[in-house]
Each structure stands twice: as structure tokens, then as C-alpha cells.
Amino acid sequence: MPHKHHRAPHISPAYTGRLAMAPVPSLRLPDDAMEPGAAYRFIHDELMLDGSSRLNLATFVTTWMDPEAEKLMAETFDKNMIDKDEYPATAAIEARCVSMVADLFHAEGLSDDDASAACGVSTIGSSEAVMLGGLAMKWRWREKVGKDWKGRTPNLVMGSNVQVVWEKFCRYFDVEPRYLPMENGRYVITPEQVLDAVDEDTIGVVAILGTTYTGELEPIAEICAALDQLSQDKGLDIPVHVDAASGGFVVPFLHPDLEWDFRLPRVVSINVSGHKYGLTYPGIGFVVWRSKEYLPEDLVFRVNYLGGDMPTFTLNFSRPGNQVVGQYYNFLRLGRAGYTQVMQCLSQTARWLGDELRDSEHFELITDGSAIPVVSFRLKGKPGYTEFDVSEGLRSFGWQVPAYTMPEGATDVVVLRVVVREGFSADLARALKEDTITVLGRLDALKPRGAFNDLQPFAH
């Protein structure tokens, strides 16, 4: 006898009938419909099993925004960012955001009344932005070497401390990655390493403003100066791309006099994450170029099937406009003064936490939160337990503090890291410090032989 589908009766409250007695299939479509309230409750309750995003100190990604921003973003989920003919106001907001980012990074040829003067685009996040910056460098290298490029292998010089998206870029787009190793006590690249690695087939050098591993700022001005001298001595003109995913919305406000951006003539492109210290929910990022000459025309496509002639040079096509709207809200809401105040507050909290961890006599600080609001640290000596034990102990209090090994050249070094974001208050920092001391007390008493030595997930 064939199965009869029927309309589900109204379920109120949620914890009766179907939800209470019958399991809902998770790997195939259910046979029958479910009332909206019941569907919401079913999914809402399962999501309770996630960790608290506010206590996730592993992630750089924003976990709190103003309610007004949330409302604006909810109102614009349905707008397709790519359809600039149908949604001209959203397109104009994107262009303004790109112009604001380009201005923040001192790009060339900007205009106070023409947003299109800025060369850049919003992206899903820094990962897509990285791909676009890398492609532009590869295409410019091809133009420079001419028709013989097919018989040569382009390479990209970067530290072994880069985010995995750079490895993806090299693999996806047939570029040889030349990783510069770290060493115990040094977790950034040096100008000397860069000079030893580059050659006539180098499409560019990647320098990081706020590394994922420790939050350190690489010596971008010194790297550019070394490459300037190389160009003068040997005629090798190697561009620099700055991966400012973590530090691009911090350094201009905390360290405005530090030259790392387009003030350095050798820097040709910069990517930044709006969903990190841009203070916007994921996913939003930007890539900007010094000027239009650094974005090859071959990478720009033009389509007209959405209603008007539209240039596009993103890897992704359709995406909601709400992330750009949320970023624009932050730019207007905070301005330079507001971003400065937020970053100074976060830095103060991070530096306080770093001082407390150092004073506990259990830890050696690697970064103290003064560059960007990131504190990285490791255990002193051989206490009889590992950083992985400390991380696991903090999870029992709800904190997610990652423990991980450092990259090539320093893989014997294990590090703990705390990312201080908006929403991580001074009170929460005090609670984290107290819980850390409690965990250390327990471990000191038990002296386990590294009960949690297995590598744990490394959060972006």
C-alpha cells in the first residue's frame, strides 16, 4: 500500500508530537512538512551544541555587532551583490567601501567625488582577495617576460607562516611556492631571506601585517628597501603584496606612522578582512591595488545578462549584499575616531592579559598584544604537561584557546594564542586569567605526561 503523505498538524508547543517521539531524518528530505516554529526549534536546539562564539579566542572573525547593523544586514540578505544594475544603491555602497579602504592604505589617484577612481573590489573574505592579488601579480609577470612565459615556472616568495590560502593559490594556479623557514625565537621573514629566494621568475613577495600564528608584523618597509636596492643593482623589479588580513584595520589606527602600505612604492596590492578587525560579521574582505595599472585588463570580465554592461573580476559571482552593507555601517558609525578607540581598547585589554600571563611565571610571551590585539605564549621549561593540556583544561570552562605547533623551521615550538576581539571585555579577560591559573594549579598538582598531545584544529 503506497505511503500517504499528509499535512503535519500544528505543533504547539514545540516539545510535543513529532519532535518528542519521532526522529527527524538528517541525511534525506523528510517525508512531511514541518511547522515553522517546530523547524526553528529543532535546528536552534541542535546549534546549542556548538561552542560559544564569544568565548572562541582562537578565531579572528567578528562575533559581535551593533543590533542596528544586524538589522540592516538582515534586511539585505536577499540582494545579490553581483547584480549592480538591479541594486545600484548597494553597488554604490560597495564602491564607497572600496574607496575608503584604498584611502586608508594611501592608494594613488583617489578622488573625493569619484569612487571609481579606487582600484579594488569587495570579496567574500581575504581568501578570495588573496587569489585576486596573486593572479594580478602572475599576469603582470607574464606580460613582463613576454611570449616565453609558457616555458618558465613562476614562483612566489613568502614565509612558511602564511595562511593556507597562499598554498592553495600556488597549487590552483601553477605557481611554485618558495617558503622561507622560521626559527626558534623568530616567526617572521627577514629581508635577507627574501633576497636569497627571489629571481627573474618571481611574481612577487608576500609580507604579512599580523601573522596568523603570533600576530606579529613582518618588516615590510625593510623588505621593500632590500628589493629596491636589488632593483637598482641587478634590475630585478619584484613587487610586494601585503597580506593585511589581520592587521589592515588595526595598524592604521594603533600605529598610524608605521609605513607598510602604498606609501612604500614597491607595494602593489593589499588584501584585508572586513570580518576580522573590520568588525563585520563574515564574510567580507577587500583587495585594493596601488592604481589601475597593477590590475591587468585580461582579468576583468564584462557581462550584460543582468541588465547592463558590468565589469567583474571576482572569483565568486553571486553573493548577498548584506556583508558590504554591514561594513559600510561600521565605516559610517565609527569613522577614524571610533576605530581608533576600539583598537586602543582591544590593545589595552590584550596587553593587560599578556602582562598577567607573564607575571604568572608559567609562561613565556611571544607577542604581548601591542602590535595587534593578539597574545601568543608558551610554557616555560618542562613543567610535566604541555600547551595542549592547558588548552584542553580551559575548554572545561568554555574557553577555546588554541594550542598548535609553529610552521617549518620551528615545528618543535608549541604556542597558545588569544585573539582579543570586540566583545571580549576586560571582565572576560580577568575571568580567563583566573580560569587559566586554576587550570595551571590542577596541572601542577597532577603533573600529567601530556594527556592531550595530539594536534588540535588550528583556527583561522
TrEMBL record:
Provide this UniProt record's keywords sorted from A to Z.
Decarboxylase, Lyase, Pyridoxal phosphate
Which transformation does this protein catalyse, written as a reaction?
Answer: L-glutamate + H(+) = 4-aminobutanoate + CO2
Q: Which CDD domains match?
A: DOPA_deC_like
The cofactor(s) it depends on are: pyridoxal 5'-phosphate
Question: One MF term in GO for this entry?
Answer: pyridoxal phosphate binding
| One of the GO biological process terms | L-glutamate catabolic process
What is the E.C. number? 4.1.1.15
Task: Identify the GO cellular component terms for this protein.
Answer: cytosol
Recorded family membership: Belongs to the group II decarboxylase family.
- Name of the protein in question: Glutamate decarboxylase
